[in-house]
Design goal:
Elements: H1 3-16, H2 19-26, E1 33-38, H3 45-49, E2 56-61, H4 76-87, E3 92-98, H5 102-107, H6 116-121, H7 135-151, H8 154-162, E4 166-172, E5 179-182, E6 187-189
Parallel strand pairs: 1-2, 1-3, 3-4
Antiparallel strand pairs: 4-5, 5-6
Catalytic activity: hydrogencarbonate + H(+) = CO2 + H2O
EC number: 4.2.1.1
Pfam family, one: Pro_CA
């Protein structure tokens, strides 16, 4: 889609929204769920979840990587998670990985030598996944690793312990459109 057509489509969509929805959205946000996923252009959160505007607070990062909690080296991702949990009071967080993820491939030795910022983001010390050669298994292991990092955030751990927050891991298969959820020993279709 060229840029001109994209702008026309976006304007037409914006114009077709009801005034009531526009007033509701302008009054402030009250999302119930934070959705952390990859920046990959093939991931369309509203299509995956069926969410209406204003119901999801989204965080998109390369490879849906969640940095370890550190007040001495705060990141935009940390601040966004903190805002969603402590200010907006979301009751659910979904960490959603996907098939055919370039960042997950890079974690397993994919060639990113020409991308120094990406190498830094995926640097040693970030959570690593298993060496299983199957991309789906790697992606699902990666989601589990990101959940572990997220659950180590003190304010997340406190809210989970009190029952105010639930954390979920999802995996989206780009080819089939199927979404599966992280269970104790496997990912099961939703």
């Amino acid at each position: 889609m060229d840029f001109h057509r994209f702008v026309q489509h976006a304007r037409a969509h914006a114009a077709s929204r009801s005034r009531a929805l526009g007033r509701k959205l302008a009054a402030g946000q009250q999302p119930t769920t934070m959705f952390i996923t990859c920046a990959d252009s093939r991931i369309v959160t509203a299509a995956i979840t069926g969410a209406e505007p204003g119901s999801l607070f989204e965080l998109r990062t390369a490879g849906n990587v969640i940095p370890p909690y550190s007040l001495t080296a705060p990141t935009s991702e940390m601040a966004t998670i903190e805002f969603a949990v402590l200010q907006l009071g979301v009751s659910e967080i979904v960490v959603c990985g996907h098939s055919h993820c370039g960042a997950v491939g890079a974690l397993h030795g994919g060639g990113i030598d020409h991308l120094p910022a990406m190498r830094g983001w995926l640097r040693p010390g970030r959570p690593r996944t298993s060496s299983d050669p199957a991309m789906r298994a790697e992606g699902q292991d990666h989601v589990r690793a990101q959940l572990e990092v997220l659950l180590a955030y003190p304010f997340v751990a406190d809210k989970v312990a009190s029952g105010e927050l639930r954390v979920h891991g999802w995996f989206y298969d780009i080819e089939t459109g199927q979404v599966s959820a992280c269970a104790e020993h496997a990912f099961l279709p939703l």
